[in-house]
Amino acid sequence: MKINITAKNIELSQAIREYIEKKLNSVEKKLIDPNNTGAFCDVEVGKTTDHHKQGDLFRAEFNLNVDGVYLRTESEKDNLYAAIDEAKDELFSSLRSKKKKKMHLGRRGALKIKNFIKGLKW
Question: Which of 26, 30, 61, 112 lies at a 20 to 30 A Cα distance from 54?
Answer without folding.
Answer: 61
